[in-house]
Amino acid sequence: FYRCCFSILTETFKQVTMLHVYGEAESALLPCFYGGSLPEKDPSVIWSRNDRNPKVFHLRPGGDDPEGQNQIYKGRTSMTPDALQTRNFSLTFSNLLLSDSGNYICSISDGIKELKLTEVQLNVKGHGLTLHQCLLLWSNLN
């Protein structure tokens, strides 16, 4: 019961979304939406992390770019195939590790310039929190 109710908490402060993942959550959704126009030439969506190179995830009109992706994220990140049409660039992150904690930046690019859309701070916490720990955590965040 408590894993479902308290496993993921989200807060937003000053354009930075903080996503806290607790317990045994298998995946997290890093939100990123855009209401503006995409570049006419070579539009792409890039998820990056400042302390990791190459990119976390790179989506082009033909699909994702696994060649340009950091190997530690391979097979663990995805976006909807129609993301460039819907402007929903949210990233699904699966098989979370403690080392996945960090700041992730969602941006769009035309291959020359990059426009930062949002920043998500992902905090992956240890597994096996008790109900009491979840309730304390929940009360401290509210």
UniProtKB/TrEMBL annotation:
Q: Where in the cell is it found?
A: Cell membrane
Note whether tRNA-binding occurs among the keywords: no
Q: What is the lineage of its organism?
A: Eukaryota, Metazoa, Chordata, Craniata, Vertebrata
Source organism (scientific name): Fundulus heteroclitus (Killifish)
Q: What is its main location?
A: membrane
**Topology relative to the membrane, per the entry?**
Single-pass type I membrane protein
Which BP terms does GO give this entry?
Answer: cell surface receptor signaling pathway; cellular response to lipopolysaccharide; immune response; negative regulation of T cell proliferation; positive regulation of T cell proliferation; T cell costimulation
Which superkingdom? Eukaryota
Keyword entries, A-Z: Cell membrane, Disulfide bond, Glycoprotein, Immunoglobulin domain, Membrane, Receptor, Signal, Transmembrane, Transmembrane helix
Tell me which GO cellular component terms the UniProt record holds: external side of plasma membrane
Ig-like domain ranges (all copies): 24-118
**Which InterPro entries does the annotation name?**
Ig-like_dom, Ig-like_dom_sf, Ig-like_fold, Ig_sub, Ig_V-set, T-cell_Activation_Regulation
Q: Does the keyword Transferase apply?
A: no
> Which protein are we looking at?
Ig-like domain-containing protein
